[in-house]
Amino acid sequence: MRPIYAGFAINVVLVILKYLASVASESASVNASLRHSLADLTFSGLILVGVLVLRLRPSPRFPFGYGRVLYVTGFAAVMVAVLYLLAGAVEEGMRRLSEPVMETSGLSIALVAVSLALNSLVLLDALLRSRGTHHPALLATAAENGADVVGDSAALLALALGNPLVDGYGAFVVAAVIAVSSASLGYRYVVSLVGVSAPRDVVGRVVKVALSDPRVVDVNEVKSLLLEPGKYLVFLQVEVDPETRLRELEEIRHYIESSVRSSTDAVERIVVEFVSPREPRRSFTRLLKEVMRLPRL
User: Fold this and answer.
1) 17 Cβ contact list (under 8 Å, min separation 6)
2) pLDDT tens digits, one per residue of 262-272
3) Residue 232 burial (10 A CB sphere; 0-12, 13-18, 19+)
4) Which of 53, 171, 217, 241 is 20 to 30 Å from 137 at the Cα level?
5) What's this model's pTM, rounded to 2 decimal places?
6) What is the SS3 assignment for 220-248?
7) What does the alpha-carbon distance between residue 223 and residue 235 come to, in Å, rounded to a whole number?
8) With contact defined as beta carbons under 8 Å apart, do 123 and 149 qualify?
């Protein structure tokens, strides 16, 4: 989680740098970028809180842990970005276009360039560490710093050209980046809080493992629930011969649980329910068709 800690620390530095750049110039893009960094500081702070809470051990009141807190803090961070940052960037752009006067300085250009370099480093680190994973904190850090890189680039271009029209439209570019990244992250957090299913790779693996036991007649139902980033609770209903003894049922349960855990680390807990065969038979074929409509891991 190094990019998350680094992102928070760098956002503190960036707020100071962009405040100094804003004082040293009259630029809508720089002011919009400053607002962006203020919101980013709040954003990364909330994500950091979620990561720290995620480490708390389960309690009697929260027996499955606090994994989904990260999505709550993430959604709150998105709301900060949308309500505070987006409106501020649009307001700055409209003000600059209505009053086309701009002052720049070498200091403001240098400070924004430093900001761009720092954001680029954090973005690269977050992208490298998020490869092969869908951890929401890393994705949020990558999206946040990606938006920063675009916003800083627009501000730097406006300062270098010294054109108030470019400056005004640069603020709109910052606003557009904020809107797109916030919408994408917000959707991800909302569906996770609602109770999104595990990816089809995971669900399909659970069904195939259950069917690999010759004592399992059919699989009627498989449901999954997100517990924490990348970890799911799976409910599995399988059909077995009604004459199957209790000892055999325990063997089937143990086989399914151990095989699933050895084939994927995404299933934190699995609950197996046994029922007698029903009609129509081979309902797992319908189930697999539904699983194929789920997104990949």
Assistant:
1) 111, 112, 114, 115
2) 988 889 889 99
3) buried
4) 171
5) 0.67
6) EEEEEEEEECCEEEEEEEEEECCCCCHHH
7) 5
8) yes
pLDDT per position as a tens digit, 149-195: 877 787 788 777 777 777 677 777 777 777 777 777 788 788 778 77
| Structural domains present in the chain | 2-194 (1.20.1510.10), 200-291 (3.30.70.1350)
Distance CA 261, CA 206 (A): 9
Average pLDDT of each block of 10 consecutive residues along the chain (297 residues)? 75 81 67 71 83 81 79 80 67 68 68 81 78 68 74 77 73 74 79 82 90 91 86 92 91 94 90 85 72 69
Report whether 122 contacts 89 (CB < 8 A).
Answer: no
User: Distance (Å, rounded) from C-alpha 81 to C-alpha 79?
Assistant: 5
Residue 265 one-letter amino acid:
D
Crossing angle of helices 28-54 and 87-98, in 10° steps, is 180
Enumerate residues 6+ apart whose C-beta is below 8 A from 1.
51, 137, 138
Q: What is the reported pLDDT for 29? A: 58
Secondary structure (3-state) at 27:
coil
**Rounded to an integer, what distance in angstroms lies between the CA atom of residue 254 and that of residue 270?**
10
Q: Strands across the sheet with 216-228, in order?
A: 216-228, 231-240, 267-275
- Pairwise CA distance, residues 93 & 35, whole Å: 12
pLDDT value, residue 133: 65
